[in-house]
Amino acid sequence: MEQLILLSESEARLRIGRLQALMRRDGMDSILVSDNANLLALCGRVYSGYAWIPAEGDPVWFVRRPVELEGENVVYVHKPENIPTYLTEASIPTGHTIGLEYDVTAYSTTVRLMGLFTDAKTVNASGILREWRSVKTPEQVELMRQSGVKHAEVYKRVPGLFRIGMTDHELQVEIERLSRLEGCLGVFRISGPSMELFMGNVISGQNADNPTPYDFAMGGAGLDPSLPVGANGEEILEHTAVMVDLNGNFTGYMTDMTRVFSFGELPALALEAHQCSIDICHAFMKEARPGVEAKDLYAMAETMVRDSSLERYFMGHRQHAGFVGHGIGIEVNELPVIAPRSRNILNEGNTIALEPKFVIPKVGAVGVENTYLITSGGAECLTVCSEEIISLV
Fold first, then answer.
1. Where on the phi/psi map is residue 221: left (φ > 0), alpha (ψ -120 to 50), or beta?
2. CB 167 within 8 A of CB 234
3. Is it the case that residue 119 has pLDDT exceeding 90?
4. Quick check: 215 pLDDT over 90?
5. In the chain, count of helices (H) and strands (E)?
6. Up-side HSE of residue 120: CA atoms within 13 Å toward CB?
7. Which of 52, 50, 54 is nearest to 64 (CA)?
8. CA-atom Rg of the chain in angstroms
9. Cα–Cα distance between 284 and 267 in angstroms, integer?
10. Nearest to 16 by CA among 160, 184, 137
11. pLDDT over 90 at 277, yes or no
């Protein structure tokens, strides 16, 4: 038998206590959680079932699979209809307002869950769950640090994988293989149905200017219209940039990092844009503190880009992304979002991937991306790796 909760008692109480404080603030008496990312944040594992989180008191863990998990308040159920029956028999009040994960739960499932609690009002808890996950505990930060170290080690070995005549897809496969051998879990969790990705992107040359339907900073045509993003199988040509933006999920808590490699010398415009990206990241490290508005950080980056007369290439060329950074942790698109109309305000413990990138026609994409931890003294980089353009040969 294995314990369901894989966290220490103090860590579990810290995480659940933070969520309960948000619930009380917003007037929610309880939340029913089933999303994998939220379950992982609550108990340190993914399982099939539900977590019942009251605003006061201890959670109840309703499990369908796997069998033989044990622990305090672990209850096996065959269907969600068993949940209110157990709560009633155990004299556990459901409260007047119950939160459900409207944003990530199928409509049919949501309707089914709403029908379980006819005497209560059901509301959308997705917002406070995203807010809760945006602030990491020290233990969660440590897991991201570990991912960052391994992520950087993989990137340092990229030049040794390159061979003249390689396609972007072939190079990506070699990097993915190395990353998996180093312990990458492979899963690239993304919230919501509008974005899809395998283990990340390797984009070289003109392919970087191909628009994609997904809300990623960079595009690429992809190998097939069924997944139109990233490497398209073209040979990596001399005097082009190769942008590597691959999965850093080594612990369940991922880092996001981009580095640029070159096959031969790049033109001055590409070098200037890449340096502008580095400068934006360094400015972000000084200015990104608790209490700062995310939109002000976007404005800072935009001003630096305009001062360098690089705005036509910023965050894309033919198609531009509407943000320059995003929260990251269990999923790659967490809060806060660094965008011009963002209402997010930075908090200590936020982890943010900042990616000021540029697409230079016929050359490729340049710019860096790092994952940062927001502290009272500024932003700390968790992806420590050379930021300069690295030669492949």
1. alpha
2. yes
3. no
4. no
5. 9, 19
6. 22
7. 50
8. 22
9. 26
10. 137
11. yes
DSSP 307: H
Q: Which two tokens mark 149?
A: 């170290």
Model pTM? 0.96
Of 115, 216, 230, the residue nearest 171 (C-alpha): 230
User: Residue 249 and residue 253: Cα distance in Å, rounded?
Assistant: 6
Tokens of 43: 């108990």
Residue with the two structure tokens 């698109």 = 333
Q: Can you read off the two tokens belonging to residue 10?
A: 């103090």
CA triple 86-92-95, angle to 5 deg: 115
Q: Percent of the chain at pLDDT above 70? A: 100
The DSSP-derived string for 329-383 is SSSSSEEEEESTT---B--TTBEEEE---EEETTTEEE--BEEEEEETTEEEES-
22: enclosing H helix or E strand: helix 9-25
Q: Answer yes or no: are the C-beta atoms of 297 and 323 closer than 8 Å.
A: no
Q: Which of 123, 388, 172, 168 is nearest to 274 (CA)?
A: 388
